[in-house]
Structures are given as structure tokens and as C-alpha cells.
Write a structure and sequence with these properties.
The protein contains 70 helices and eight strands. Strands 1-2 form a two-stranded antiparallel sheet. A two-stranded antiparallel ribbon has the order 3-4. A two-stranded antiparallel ribbon has the order 5-6. Strand 7 and strand 8 form a beta hairpin. Helix 23 packs parallel to helix 25, helix 56 runs antiparallel to helix 57 and helix 59 packs antiparallel against helix 60. The longest helix has 28 residues. It is globular.
Length: 1465
């Protein structure tokens, strides 16, 4: 477009020097093209550049207008260009202020010096627009030289200068605009101007000898509309010309006219200044109403849009006059007339929507007089009839051309006036009112700007008048309309951000059509999204933006009440709507079994008695650790949720921030709960980012007065920081931030970007507490920001804010790790960003037909300064570096190990010799030296052209490498192995690159390489192993999620093609590649690094669908594989939960378990080729089941519970065994109860459980980890007994009342009950500091414990309490008859019952962290179940003992009753 625009401007100037007789016509044609190009065809990306060309000092249109000032043949061209200038001024507003003086000067010059009347007339519109602009940009007034301009135009019509009628009318209108905008300069002319207006109107409207000039009349009336703003002619003040002006107004709106300029001017005058003629309007009510009513029903859109405001102004003034006039008879006559008119319209079933609208508006304005002249019963009857009739007419719907939408705001405003005068509101009235308000939300996107402003006022006015009724009425009304409004606002097509902040693309075509145009009556039809509702919600939640509310209610308290109700109900409804949505995800492309495991790896079989009670999971439900392949279970719910999140992000930060302060904790807690339930839904991270941004604006945590160091700020233990809501909130957010920092390592795309935005929006206190962990997140943001600039902007803003708010000593050590990433932006070219802008522009321009008014609106909203997005980011970086000071600039350059690595040659021998195929000679080129630089450019170049060229070259070099390695001479030497280990990681990275060309080149190439190298005949072939190890290195990459996903596909492909290219016989004897793969998977699965174990589990989850198809592989490796993965799960016990190693390992175990269930006939007997796993005596299913049972007492929670789960599955597969219950019963009879007690209480393989150590270690110095380990072993024993007893495998009496057997063996009693009693008395209610200072230790701990250590100890206490409650609940629910027989009375001690009481009234005292959502939820449910069971099955004496302890705790002052946990039973 820039070329076309420049060409047209050059052609325009060329006509000035042309000698062609048709140069004027040519210039006019070019001007018409310019108007089309600059107004009708312009796009957002071209606005800034277009503006710079149009107003260029040397070759812009203003310069052209000056040059052709005296050339008469250019009159048509001047007219067209002035029309273009008017469009610029009107639609760009204050952003064109820099050119306002030039526009004014050229308009004045053309008016004074050009001879053509059409040119003079064309100058008025842009000049009036500039004058109106001065009311909003006061600095322009001085530069416009207003006195001189006023003098020139006044003399043009006030002297003897002859002007045409159209020019004179334009000058009159311009003088009126001067009076409105510059009253201080027009005071000396005011009396002469009013005389001039009156004289002109008299000559044109009263004379019978002169021809009536409608343009003079219209200009005079419009001039009066501006004049009367500051120089009033009020009838109430006895103004000299008031009656005469009213006379001309009355004549101007007579319906018998052929042209509409005069009626439109008269209607404008009434709508703006009806109050100055109140008495005349009231006395002339009949004729005036008749005329205005006819204009309201006119077919002309412009007339109608002016008639309705004029009618409303008229009715308002008449209503006011009736109320203040003393003579009641005259007032009543006027009142009866209008009520009769309105009633007739309402009763007439053939009345159209226009007539009904007039009647309803009339009733609204006459609501107050109704109170004066009518009885209460009549008022209610009449108003109920009105609302019913309104609903009948206005709820019929219609298309965009219907008048329904246009009249709805006025209708609602009138009904608000009616409600204000009613003392009681019936349910029928309120329900009908609610339905009409919901229609406002339904049609709001289709309202024009003027109507939308009226809509905001009407909605809030209605809420204000409802506030004078009981508060419950207002709350119920607001709750209903907010709910319906939110649902409708979020039910339209989703909008996708394409990288540019202002550029969005709709995912689907809405029902209203794809075009965008203004239709009749101010209704707009266009694609609708949540963005169209943002303005409405902003006004509802921030009433300060709505003008005129003081006239409805001048009580600040009342307005504050309504504001509080609307805000509160909106936040409540947002939470309720999200709670109702099903945001679960499924993996539809997996088979049925796979889908079950993906959704819940801990799920048990649905058949048999063994599935009564699945193993208990204290930390909540398991979920898949990666979001790859997941799809929404209910797409419509996700549709609403995505729009709701975007709506909240657009509205909440822009509204009254202080209103959000009461919702910080509730909204944040709910969002964290939802995020824990649905960790792969990015919207929850976006909502929490809003919460964090609001905390920052509010300074929410400023009162905490924490110390500057991170350890002091990291107070996640709620017991340590007290009960303050802000302190609990800080602890909650701090915990979740740590979870997100771990979670995001597994995320990519929008999910990763959402987490980064959350971390970058944290308030200062949370940043200071986690600054070291946030630096890697900042690095990722800058790395991804190269392809998604909004993320880079967020990172720069966050870094700038942190450097300003935090102490230099806190930030200084981290600059060297962050600033090098900014150097990439400074080195990058703007080509990428400019290409992205071009793509966006082409998409937008081709999406739907262009429309002039729509483009003008875009023009107004989108024009900004010049420069690409990347240039703006660079400017931000430079400013940031300047604010940090020059001493950090050296950190921009990376150095050290990276430079040393690049200096090392990849291979000492040149292997890539390529003969150039010239005709006369074939010189040999060695490509080895180019390979490192080529790989670097292909992976990290910021210039797209360079990157693509490097990718193409690398692709060719890799093919050359493969070809040379395949030559017979080189096969035995593996010459390319060193190069493969350098190149293959790059090839894999490019195979999942965001650059489409790179992905299309290398993704197929990777799979072809796999096909080639899996055909090896040699075991551990160097080339094949190089490829395999590179893929496995990618699958355990710590940060690149896309690479991990791609490598998972590659490893599956590797196994598939290894099997395809291996014979059946070779597969049975020595499957070379399978062994190589599994050997490395086993090594990763047992690696100390959690990331490598996570990669091993992900590999199993990727290849199991291939593995399960080969019976030979199942027979050989299945048992070994499940044992290795169980060991991997055991190692994951101390891993960060958010990392997902346990969940992924459980999913892998679930896959292998189903394979074993399907092929159990192969595994029930030993096989010579089957390897025996470590810890097993034989590699068969019976031995595996017995080993699993012995592992059930292990202290590692997930490992223990998975063993229980596998045991219940595999026992039914054994010969002669029907279920887990029968197998356990047979084993119990064969090995006695002592064997079970030993397995449950020995504490796993090391045998140091509560059986041999019933008390925590109490010798030497105090070691917290020893205590935590002992607690884990206690939890394991409790969990085992709960599992056995709850599934009725054994009864408590069989285990706890053991007797010596007949063969003389001594029964070993269980020590569980004794250990539980000890925990209740000596551990659960004791803080870690008191425990460490116990005199039984030779070296009591003097050093204070860190917050992390206190949290670790408190979590152990919490787990003990929840497992204890679960144990008691299980005994009382499943074995109530055995409880009192088996459990001694001493077990129900005061200490145990005190623990139960503290769970109710002071959960913090027993280690529960109120800032942890999961802990509080589990505690609430467990305490409730326990108390119910205890109240039903415990003896009365113990229940009385429990109540007495509760009463004692409540009255002894040890518990703050005001901060009790809210438990309801």
C-alpha cells in the first residue's frame, strides 16, 4: 500500500506542472483514489505510515492544497482532499493535534482566496472538527490564533462581502462552533451574532418576497445550537430573543418539507437546549408532541436518530414543568393528555416498535407526575401493564435491521424511572425486568457507540433505583443479570492473539455474519466476541466512567452500595460459573485401556471384591504429567472458560482496584484449587496472573514487613506467620509459585507462556522470596520472546520493576545470567517482526469485505507511533540498561565455557569431502569446518532468511554424511560417529522447531535416519547407538518440552522399525536394538536425577503400544520392566510432586500391568530367556506377587500403594486363585499372622520399621530427617492395615489378637497401637523446636530451624494425623464389633481424643498448613467422616470424654475461637 500511496501523491503533484487541459479532472481522479486508499482500504498496520505520508511537509496533501490555491480547475480535487482531511480529524481525534494548525491555515486560505463555492463549503467541515478538537486539547487554542480567525469569518458575512447562500449557512454554523469552543473570544461578538442569526431566520422564514434558502436556515439553527451553550436565551430568565427563537424552532420542525437539513437542525436545537424553552414547550405541548412523534416514526435514519433525543428532552421538560407549576388544573390537563396518548399506543395491538418505544419513554418521564395525579393502585396496574406490553413487543427478537435493539436502552431507562416511583415491586414485574435487561446483553455488541453509552447509563440507573428497595431485591436482580450477562458475553467465538497486541483472528464465523457495517437505527452488525462486551463490564464495575449518575442519585453512600453489590455479585458469579464448567481432558486417540490410565493411573479394576477400596492417595488424584494429545472432554465448557478468562484479564485490572482487595484471598485460593485439579488448563495461570497484578497495584503485602533476605520471606508455614489473612495469602501464593516453577518444566506453547506471565507479574514480596528460582523463568521468557514479542515485553517490564523495587544487592548477582539474553534482541534485525506484521495485515485484509466506517474506527483506535514491534522492544532494553547503569553492560556478552566449547573441533580428520562438479575441473571442498557454524545459524539465528538457508545447507550435509558412511569402504570404520554425536542433537532440535521450514525439512529426515540405522546387524553398532543415545538425551532434556515430545515419537519409531527389520528367530534369541534400548531405559529409570527418571517413564509410555504386540518381548522383558519401573517410582518418593515423576512412573506401570494381565499365561511359568530382576528368586508371576506383598510395608507412599494395587490385579491371574482376598487368606493360613505383621511393620527392605524401632531415634544429636523417616514408616504400617481391613481381607481380631501356633512358634504381636498412642502423646502436638530440645538427646538442638525444615516436620505431623483419622474411621465403619473387643480401652486416651479435637478447632496446632488448599480439604473431609463414625459407634463414655476435652479447649484460652476453621457437620 505504501508504494501505491506514494505513487498517487507524486501523481497529484505532477498534475501541477502538467500542461494538459484535463489536469484538473486527472487530479480529481487521483484525489478520489487517495480517499479510497487512505480511508476505505487502510489496515491497522499501515496507519502510522499513511499518516506520515499524508501530512508530509514536502509532498503531503496540505502542501498540495497550498500550491493549487489559485488554480480554479482543481476545484473538484480540492473538495475531495478536504473531505479526506475531515475524515482524518474526526476519526483520529487528539492524535492528529500536531497537524491541526496546518489544517486550519489551509482551510482559512482556501475560504478567503478560492472563488469556487464548493471549495469554500468543503473547508467548513474540517475546520469545525478542529475547533471541536480544541475542547479536548486545550493547548491547541493558543496556536490557532482564534481572534484573527473569528474576525475574518465574521467579516465575511457581517460586512458587505457577497456570499452564496450555502457559504453563508456554513459560516453561521462555524460561528456557532466558535461560540461553543471559545466563549472567552466570542463575548464581544455575542450580541451581534445573535442579531445576525435572528435577522437571517426572519428573512428566510417570515418573508414572503424572498426565496427561502434552506441552507441559511439550517446554518443559523445549527449556529444557535452552539451559541446557546454559553450565551443562553432562557425563557425563564426573560431573554429578549427566547420567544422568537422558539417560534423559528417550531416552524423548522414542521413535517411538510422536502429536504431534511432544516428539520434536523431544529431537532438538534431542541435536544440540546429544550430547558431554555420549557414554558413554551409545555404550553404548546399538543402541537409540539404531534410534530416530534411524526419525526420519530419517519423512515429517514438520520432524522429519526435526532428526533428521539429531541422527544425525550421535550417530555422531560414538560414533566418538570408539571411538577413545579402551582396551578394544578393546567398541569393535570397536560398530564392527562400525555397519559391518554401513551395509553392509546400501549392498548393498540397494531402499534409498532417505534410507537411502543415512544410510549414507554413517555411513561418513564411522567413517572414522577403519576405519583402526584394518580392513586397507588392505578399506578401499579398501569406500570405492570406497561412492563408486560414492553416484554411482549421487545422480546420478539429480530435481525440487525430491527428497531428493537436501538430502542432497548431508552426503554430500560424509562422503566428505571418507573421503578423509582413504585413502593413495591411484584415478582412478575422483576422477572420481566430481568428478561429485558438480559436482552441488553444479548444485543449489546450490535449497538452503535452512542446507544452503548445510553445502555451503560440505563443499566446503572436501574440498579440505583432498585437500591431504594430492600437490599435483597437489588442483590437478587444483579445476581441474575450478571450471571446471564457473563454467560452470553463468553458464548461467542474465541479470539486468538496472533502476536500483535491489537491483531486478533476469530476461530469461527459467528451467527451474525462476517461483514461489518452500520445498519439502520444505529445498529451494527459485525463478528462478535467477548471483546465487544469489555466496555459494558468496565462501565458496570467502574461507574465513575458513566456520566450523569449524580442526577439520578446524589448520595455517595447509595452509589457506593450499588457499586459494592455489582462488584461482589460479579466476582461471585465468575467463581460459580467456573465451578460449574467441566474442564477435564481426554486422550481420544488412545485405545480404551490407555485412556483410562491417562486419566487415572491409580484406577483399579471394576470387577471383583478387590476393587472395593483403592489405595489411599493423600495428595489428591493423579493426573497425566504432560498435556500432549489431550482434548477437551466438553468443548463448549472450554469455549466459555477461555472467553471468561480473557474477559477477566481485560476488565478487572482496569476497574476500581480497591474493590478487589477483599477478593485477593478468595479468588486466588479458588484459582489455585482449580489449577491443582486441572494443571494443564492455562486459563487458571492467567487468572492468577491477574490476581498477582492486582496485589502489586494494591500493595497488598506491604504490611507484612518481611526482612529483605529470601529465607525470611519464604514463610510458607502458616503456624509460624500467624492467622492474618494476608499472611496466609502470602504463604498460599508462595507455595503455588514454587509448584509452578517445577510444573512449567514440562509445559510448552500457551501453557508455558501462561506460567511465565504469572511468574513475571508477581508482587515484590513474592519475587524477593523466590528470586533465585525466578531467574531461569526470566531466561525462558527472553528465549521464547524472540518469536513471541509480548512475552519479551513482559520480561523486560518485570526485570525493570524488580531492579527498581528490590535492593541492588539482591539483583546484582543475577544480571549476568539474564542480560545476555537481551543481547539477542539488540543483534536481531527487524525483518522477522516486519514479516509478521505483513502476514497479520494480509490475513486481516482478506478476512472480510472492507467497510469505510469500520476502517475509520480502526484508524482512530489503532494509529500509533512509527516503528516495528521489535524496535520498540529494543528501545525498552536500552532504557532498561540505562536505568541499571553502565557497570552491568558487560554482562550482555556471554563468555567462559560457551566460547571454549565453540573452539573445540568436532573431528580432527576432514570426513566431508565434496567434489564440486565444474565442467573443466572438480576441486574438492572440505565441509567439516563449516558444519559447527551452520548448525549454530540453523538453531539460533534471529534472521529468518539466514536460518532457512542454514537449514537447507545442513539438510544437504546430513544427506552427504549418510551417503559417505554407507559406502562399502567406510562401513567398517564408522568414520562419521563423532560427527553424528554433534549433528544428531541439532537435527532433532530442528525437527521440532517453531520455524515451519525447519520442521518440514528435518522431521521427515529424522524418521528416515531411524529407518536406516535400525537395520544394523551388529549389537551396539556405534552409529545406531549414537542415534539412540541422542534421542534419549532429548527425551530427558530439562527444559525443552517440544524436544521431549518429539523424541518420544522418535523412540517409538525406533522400536517399531527395529522390530520390522528383525526376524522372528533373531527376536527370540538376541533382539539387539531392543536390548540396547531397554538397557538405557533401565539406567535412566534408576538414575538419581529426577529428570532422567521422568524421561525413562515417558519413554515407556511412548513405546508400550509397540511392545505389547510382540509376545516374545513380553515374555522376556515384562517382569523385569515392571520391577525396574517400581524401583523408579520408589526413588521418586522425595521428588518434587509438581515435577510429575511419580505420576508418569505410575502411568508406565499401569501400561505394563495391563500387558501382563493380557499375557498372564506366558508369565505364570519360568522361562530360560527371562532375566530375573533384582530381589526376586524367580522371574514368574507367582514370585512377583509374593514380592509385591512383601513390598507393601515400604515407607515410600506411591511405591507402597502401587504394590498394593498390582497385587490386587495380579493375584486373580495366578493358577488356582480367584481374587486377592483368597490369596491373602491362603497366605495368612500358610505363613501365620506374624508374617503379615513383619511385612507391614518392618519398614521395607532395610527392616528398620516400627517393628524393630517403635520409637523415634533418641540417641546422640537430634536429626530431623531421622524423625521424618520414622514417621514415613509409621504411615506405611497404618496404610497397610487400612488396606487389609477396609477390603475385608482380614479382621482386626485376627491380626491384633495373635496366639502361639501349635508347632511351638511364638506369635509376634503388632506394635501399631502402641506407636499410635506414642505419636498422639509425644509427637503430633509437639513443635519441632520443643522436640529438638528434649533432654533425652545428648546434644540438644540450639540452632533455629529453617522454614523448610519446619514445613517438613509439620507435614509429617499432618500426614500422621490424617492417616490416624483414616485408620479410626475405617475400624469404626467396617469392623465396629471388633473395635472394643480388639482395641484396649487405654488406646482411647485423652491425648488421642485431644488430637481429634485439635483437628476441629486448631488444625494448625497439629501441623496442618491452612495456606495449602489440598491439606485443608483433606483435613476437612477426614475430620468430618471420623466424627460421624465416632458418634455412631463409640461408647457413651468415650463420647463424653471427647466432649469434655472439646469444652475445656474452648474455654481455657489455648485456642483463639475467632480463628476457628469453618467446619460444618
Amino acid at each position: 500500500m505504501s508504494d501505491e500511496l506514494g505513487k498517487n501523491l507524486r501523481g497529484l503533484f505532477d498534475t501541477l506542472s502538467s500542461n494538459s487541459p484535463t489536469r484538473g479532472a486527472e487530479a480529481a481522479s487521483i484525489a478520489a483514489d487517495l480517499y479510497s486508499l487512505c480511508v476505505e482500504r487502510i489496515t491497522d498496520a499501515e496507519l502510522a505510515y499513511t499518516s506520515s505520508l499524508v501530512f508530509n511537509k514536502e509532498n503531503g496533501i496540505i502542501r498540495f492544497l497550498r500550491d493549487c490555491l489559485l488554480l480554479d480547475e482543481f476545484a473538484v480535487c480540492k473538495d475531495e482532499l478536504l473531505r479526506l482531511l475531515h475524515s482524518f480529524v474526526v476519526n483520529l481525534g487528539h492524535r492528529i493535534a500536531a497537524h491541526a494548525v496546518d489544517i486550519k491555515e489551509v482551510c482559512v486560505s482556501l475560504f478567503l482566496r478560492d472563488k469556487a463555492a464548493r471549495v469554500k463549503n468543503a473547508t467548513f467541515a474540517p475546520l469545525i472538527a478542529v475547533v471541536e478538537l480544541c475542547q479536548h486539547v486545550s493547548s491547541l487554542t493558543a496556536s490557532l490564533n482564534v481572534p484573527d480567525m473569528v474576525k475574518r469569518y465574521y467579516q465575511a458575512v457581517g460586512g458587505r462581502t457577497k456570499c452564496t447562500a450555502s457559504v453563508k449557512g456554513g459560516v453561521y454554523q462555524l460561528l456557532g462552533a466558535f461560540c461553543e469552543a471559545f466563549p472567552e473570544h466570542m463575548a464581544e461578538y455575542s450580541s451581534r451574532i445573535i442579531i445576525m442569526f435572528m435577522k437571517a431566520l426572519k428573512e428566510q422564514m417570515s418573508s414572503t418576497t424572498h426565496k427561502t434558502e434552506m441552507t441559511i436556515i439550517a446554518g443559523s439553527l445549527r449556529g444557535l445550537a452552539g451559541y446557546l451553550v454559553h450565551f443562553t436565551q432562557s425563557a425563564a430568565e426573560g431573554a429578549e430573543y427566547a420567544k422568537e427563537i422558539y417560534f423559528y424552532i417550531r416552524k423548522s420542525i414542521k413535517p411538510e418539507v422536502a429536504r431534511y437539513d432544516v428539520p434536523k437542525a431544529g431537532l438538534l436545537l431542541i435536544s440540546r437546549h429544550a430547558a431554555q424553552f420549557q414554558e413554551y414547550l409545555a404550553k404548546d405541548y399538543n402541537a409540539m408532541y404531534s410534530s416530534l412523534f411524526k419525526w420519530c416514526n419517519h423512515n429517514n435514519r438520520d432524522i429519526k436518530q435526532l428526533a428521539f433525543p429531541a422527544l425525550e428532552a421535550f417530555l422531560q421538560q414538560v414533566s418538570t414543568y408539571i411538577l413545579k407549576v402551582v396551578d394544578q388544573s393546567d398541569s393535570e390537563d397536560i398530564f392527562r393528555f400525555f397519559i391518554k396518548q401513551f395509553r392509546a399506543i400501549i392498548d393498540n395491538q397494531s402499534s409498532g416498535q417505534r410507537e411502543i418505544s415512544v410510549a414507554i419513554r413517555g411513561y418513564g418521564h411522567f413517572a414522577a407526575p403519576c405519583r402526584r395525579f394518580m392513586k397507588e393502585g392505578d399506578i401499579h396496574f398501569m406500570f405492570n401493564d406497561i412492563i408486560q406490553r414492553s416484554e411482549q413487543v421487545f422480546s420478539q427478537g429480530g435481525t440487525a435491521s430491527d428497531l428493537t435493539i436501538y430502542h432497548l436502552p431508552s426503554l430500560l431507562e424509562s422503566l428505571a424511572s418507573i421503578v423509582k416511583e413504585m413502593k413495591q415491586l411484584s415478582e412478575l414485574f422483576l422477572s420481566s425486568l430481568e428478561r429485558l435487561v438480559v436482552m441488553i446483553f444479548e444485543y449489546y455488541p450490535r449497538l452503535a457507540t452512542t446507544n452503548s453509552k445510553q445502555c451503560h447509563f440505563a443499566l446503572y440507573k436501574l440498579c440505583l433505583v432498585l437500591s431504594y428497595h430492600p437490599t435483597a431485591v437489588l442483590k437478587s436482580f444483579v445476581s441474575h443479570i450478571v450471571y446471564q450477562g457473563l454467560v452470553r458475553s463468553c458464548s461467542y467465538p474465541i479470539v486468538i492473539d496472533v502476536g500483535d497486541g491489537s491483531a486478533t483472528v476469530s476461530m469461527e464465523t459467528p451467527a451474525t455474519g462476517s461483514g461489518a457495517y452500520d445498519s439502520a437505527d444505529g445498529v451494527v452488525t459485525k463478528p462478535v466476541s467477548y471483546k465487544d462486551f469489555v466496555n459494558l463490564w468496565c462501565h458496570l464495575l467502574n461507574p465513575g466512567k458513566i456520566k450523569g449518575l449524580g442526577k439520578v442519585c446524589n448520595s455517595p453512600e447509595q452509589q457506593s452500595l450499588v457499586h459494592h453489590v455489582i462488584y461482589t455479585e460479579t466476582m461471585t458469579i465468575i467463581i460459580n460459573v467456573i465451578q460449574k464448567l467441566d474442564l477435564s481432558a481426554v486422550q481420544p486417540h488412545l485405545d480404551h485401556d490407555s485412556m483410562e490410565t491417562a486419566c487415572d493411573p491409580m484406577e483399579t479394576d471394576s470387577t471383583g471384591s478387590d476393587s472395593k477400596s483403592p489405595p489411599h492417595t493423600p495428595d489428591g488424584d493423579a493426573h497425566p504429567v504432560t498435556a500432549t494429545g489431550l482434548e477437551a472432554a466438553v468443548p463448549k465448557d472450554f469455549h466459555i472458560f477461555i472467553n471468561l478468562v480473557d474477559l477477566c484479564r481485560s476488565v478487572l485490572p482496569t476497574c476500581d482496584v480497591h474493590m478487589f482487595e477483599g477478593w485477593v484471598m478468595e479468588f486466588g485460593r479458588q484459582t489455585i484449587t482449580w489449577s491443582s485439579r486441572y494443571p494443564f488448563v492455562s486459563g487458571f495461570y492467567k487468572l492468577l496472573a491477574v490476581d498477582m497484578a492486582m496485589c502489586r497495584k494494591l500493595g497488598y503485602f506491604n504490611e507484612l514487613n518481611k526482612e529483605a533476605d529470601g529465607d525470611a520471606m519464604d514463610t510458607s508455614d502458616a503456624a509460624a506467620i500467624g492467622n492474618s489473612e494476608k499472611q496466609l495469602c502470602f504463604g498460599l501464593f508462595s507455595k503455588f509459585v514454587k509448584e509452578v516453577l517445577v510444573r512449567m518444566k514440562q509445559y510448552k506453547d500457551d501453557l508455558l507462556a501462561s506460567c511465565l506471565h504469572l511468574l513475571l507479574s508477581l508482587p515484590r514480596q513474592l519475587v524477593q522470596a523466590n528470586i533465585a528460582a525466578l531467574v531461569p523463568a526470566l531466561q525462558i521468557a527472553f528465549r521464547l520472546g524472540l518469536s513471541y514479542l509480548p512475552l519479551a515485553v513482559a520480561g523486560i517490564d518485570a526485570l525493570k520493576l524488580w531492579s527498581q523495587e528490590l535492593e541492588p544487592s539482591v539483583m546484582m548477582p543475577h544480571y549476568k545470567h539474564v542480560l545476555p539474553y537481551l543481547n539477542d534482541y539488540l543483534k536481531a534485525s527487524a525483518t522477522v517482526a516486519e514479516e509478521e506484521d505483513t502476514v497479520v495485515s494480509s490475513v486481516k485484509s482478506g478476512a472480510r469485505p472492507r467497510d469505510r466506517k469500520k476502517d475509520l474506527q480502526k484508524w482512530r483506535e489503532g494509529i500509533e507511533g512509527s516503528g516495528s514491534s521489535l524496535e520498540k522492544v529494543r528501545l525498552k532494553i536500552i532504557r532498561l540498561l540505562g536505568s541499571l547503569g553502565g557497570h552491568v553492560n558487560g554482562d550482555l556478552v556471554r563468555g567462559g565455557e560457551d566460547d571454549m566449547t565453540q573452539a573445540i573441533v568436532w573431528d580432527t580428520h576432514g570426513k566431508l569431502q565434496f567434489a564440486l562438479p565444474f565442467q573443466d575441473m572438480k576441486p574438492t571442498m572440505c565441509l567439516d569446518p563449516f558444519l559447527p557454524r551452520c548448525c549454530e545459524l540453523a538453531t539460533s539465528s534471529n534472521d529468518r532468511q539466514t536460518k532457512v538457508a542454514a537449514c537447507e545447507l545442513l539438510h544437504a550435509i546430513v544427506l552427504l554424511m549418510l551417503g559417505k558412511a554407507a559406502q562399502p569402504i567406510a562401513q567398517d570404520k564408522a568414520p562419521m560417529n563423532k560427527l553424528y554425536r554433534k549433528v544428531f542433537p541439532v537435527v532433532l532440535q530442528l525437527g521440532c522447531d517453531v520455524e515451519q521450514v525447519a520442521e518440514q525439512l528435518f522431521s521427515p529426515l529424522v524418521f528416515q535416519i531411524i529407518h536406516w540405522f535400525t537395520s544394523n546387524k551388529q549389537y551396539e553398532s556405534p552409529d545406531t547407538i549414537a542415534l539412540l543415545e541422542t534421542i534419549l538425551d532429548g527425551i530427558v532434556h530439562p527444559t525443552d518440552t517440544s524436544l521431549r515430545s518429539f523424541c518420544a515419537k522418535c523412540i517409538k519409531h525406533f522400536l517399531e522399525w527395529s522390530l520390522k527389520q528383525t526376524s522372528k528367530k533373531q527376536l527370540e534369541t538376541s533382539p539387539a536394538n531392543v536390548k540396547s534400548l531397554l538397557k538405557r531405559i533401565y539406567s535412566l529409570a534408576t538414575h538419581p536425577s529426577a529428570v532422567k527418571r521422568l524421561g525413562a517413564a515417558a519413554t515407556i509410555n511412548s513405546i508400550y503400544t509397540v511392545f505389547r504386540e510382540e509376545d516374545t518381548l513380553i515374555n522376556t522383558f515384562a517382569i523385569e520392566m515392571i520391577c525396574v519401573m517400581l524401583h523408579s517410582l520408589k526413588l521418586a518418593h522425595k521428588d518434587e510432586v509438581s515435577l510429575g515423576t511419580a505420576e508418569q512412573a505410575q502411568a508406565a506401570i499401569g501400561h505394563i500391568a495391563r500387558i501382563i494381565q493380557t499375557r498372564a499365561n506366558l508369565l505364570n511359568k519360568p522361562h530360560k530367556l527371562r532375566r530375573i530382576p533384582r530381589g526376586l528368586k524367580a522371574a514368574d508371576l507367582p514370585t512377583l506377587v509374593l514380592w509385591l506383598f512383601e513390598q507393601c510395608g515400604s515407607p515410600e507412599t506411591n511405591y507402597r500403594q502401587q504394590c498394593m494395587l498390582l497385587l490386587t490385579k495380579f493375584t486373580a491371574l495366578l493358577p488356582g486363585v480367584t481374587s486377592a482376598s483368597s490369596w491373602i487368606r491362603n497366605t495368612f493360613e500358610a505363613k501365620s499372622g506374624s508374617y503379615f505383621i513383619k511385612c507391614f511393620e518392618q519398614g521395607g527392605a532395610n527392616g528398620a520399621g516400627i517393628r524393630s524401632q517403635p520409637r523415634p531415634p533418641n540417641e546422640g544429636s537430634f536429626l530431623l530427617l531421622d524423625y521424618v523417616s520414622w514417621c514415613d514408616k509409621t504411615l506405611a504400617a497404618i496404610d497397610c492395615y487400612c488396606w487389609v481391613f477396609s477390603n475385608a481381607y482380614l479382621a482386626p481380631s485376627e491380626v491384633f489378637n495373635l496366639k502361639s501356633s501349635g508347632d511351638g512358634s511364638v506369635a509376634v504381636p503388632s506394635k501399631l497401637l502402641d506407636v499410635i498412642s506414642y505419636c498422639a502423646s509425644q509427637l503430633i502436638m509437639v513443635e519441632v523446636s520443643s522436640l529438638a530440645a528434649n533432654k533425652c538427646y545428648s546434644q540438644a538442638s540450639i540452632e533455629p530451624f529453617s522454614p523448610h525444615e519446619e514445613e517438613l516436620y509439620n507435614r509429617s505431623r499432618y500426614m500422621l494425623v490424617t492417616e490416624l483419622l483414616r485408620f479410626l474411621t475405617m475400624l469404626l465403619r467396617h469392623h465396629p464389633s471388633d473395635v472394643m473387643k480388639t482395641i484396649p480401652n487405654s488406646f482411647w486416651s485423652d491425648d488421642l481424643l485431644t488430637v481429634v479435637v485439635l483437628c476441629c478447632i486448631n488444625p494448625q496446632g497439629i501441623g496442618c498448613d491452612l495456606a495449602d488448599v489440598k491439606q485443608t480439604d483433606v483435613m476437612y473431609k477426614q475430620v468430618k467422616e471420623s466424627l460421624v463414625m465416632m458418634s455412631q459407634h463409640l461408647p457413651a463414655t468415650i463420647r463424653s470424654q471427647l466432649m469434655s476435652i472439646l469444652c475445656k479447649k474452648l474455654v481455657d484460652g489455648s485456642v483463639d475461637v475467632s480463628n476457628l476453621m469453618a467446619l460444618t457437620f
